[in-house]
Amino acid sequence: MGESSIVRGACDLNIKMEISSIKDAFDRVAKKQKLCSSKSQETVDQVGREIEQALAALRSPQDPSTLADQKSVLTELKLKLNAIGALQQLEGPHKELNTSLGKYQKLLEKLLNPDISKAYRNVDFDSHIINQIIASHFYHQGLYDLGDSIVNEAGEPDATALRSQFLEMHQVIEAMRTRNLQPALTWVTANREKLVQIGSNLELKIHTLQYVEVLQNGTRADALKYAKTHLAPFASLNKDDFHKLMGCLLYAGRLENSPYSELLSPFHWEITTEELARQFCSLMGQSYQNPLSVVFAAGVEGLPTLLKLANVMAAKKQEWQEMKQLPVPVELGKEFQFHSIFVCPVSRDQGSEENPPMLLPCLHVLCKQSIIKLSKNSTRTFKCPYCPAEATVAHCRQLYF
Prior knowledge:
Residues 344-387 form the RING-Gid-type domain. Keywords: Cytoplasm, Metal-binding, Zinc, Zinc-finger. A zinc finger (RING-Gid-type) spans 344-387. GO terms for molecular function: ubiquitin protein ligase activity; zinc ion binding. Helices cover 62% and strands 3% of the residues. It is mainly alpha-helical. The chain folds into 3 domains: 3-113; 128-284, no CATH class; 339-398, Zinc/RING finger domain, C3HC4 (zinc finger) (Herpes Virus-1). A 3-stranded antiparallel sheet has the order 2-1-5. Strand 1 and strand 2 form a beta hairpin. The longest helix is centred in the N-terminal third of the chain and has 57 residues, at 3-59. The relative contact order is 0.07.
């Protein structure tokens, strides 16, 4: 068994043990809570019954000139309540429950709120690139004052090149949110050739939004004129959409009561605004998703696994700091997968520069280290683990993802 398999097994065992500890502690607290609730309800019901019996006795017919019977009822009720000892009955179970809750909270704090600095590794960063990333993050979010502060304090004038571009994008988007499409139309017209090259029909979508606005708030003649001027150039490539839009002319001013009422949905504005932002970033050579936000979100999702690994390797700090590839997989969602990866079906290791995927003559793929082991350090032919074909290391070719 390789060292990575041992580490992976230790991490998995550690995680299972911690989950088991949390579950056992939760079960104990839940049991205490049920018991406490049951005892409390029983005590309250017992006190309630004694009081109801006393009230019934006081309401029964009796000589109003004497209070002896009433006093005896109240005296008897007092004695019974003292005998029940409601306060003591409630206090004991609640103390036990509070003790269990306190222990459970400490366990959660220990297991779920660890010192995240343990997962930190010394990595060489290019401060110039980091400063630009942070400044771009603020510009991307529309926080221009913060971005300018980073640029000025870090002395990164090159980062300001993105400021004007993101500023224009946010101005266009804000205008769209107020149903003002003119800035968006100006931008798509100026970038028409680039948008066509990437197969975008954003210009048609924006003109469609404007056409629907004219159709709903103007006259049929105004809508027809707009369609002839701005929608007709797209008719040959978008026949179905064009016929649909022309059908809307029959319902000018009352589109909400037509078969085309869905065109009035705010959803069309939202999705077109998002697409414009995506295309804007694409033409700038920037990611639509803020890179710093993506990295931060991925780090938060992968942190539990990293902490478990750091605890397992606590005695090997030097190895932890110098490790180029993690010995265990860090499971992230599909939203964090931006390129293809290869995991060796034999060793379960992810392909890397040192251990790349290799194509066998039989067209099966293994990682290089697995092939070296199968071939006894490249000294003999070996049999593919998945078919009867034989091969040598010389016959294998590296694959690039």
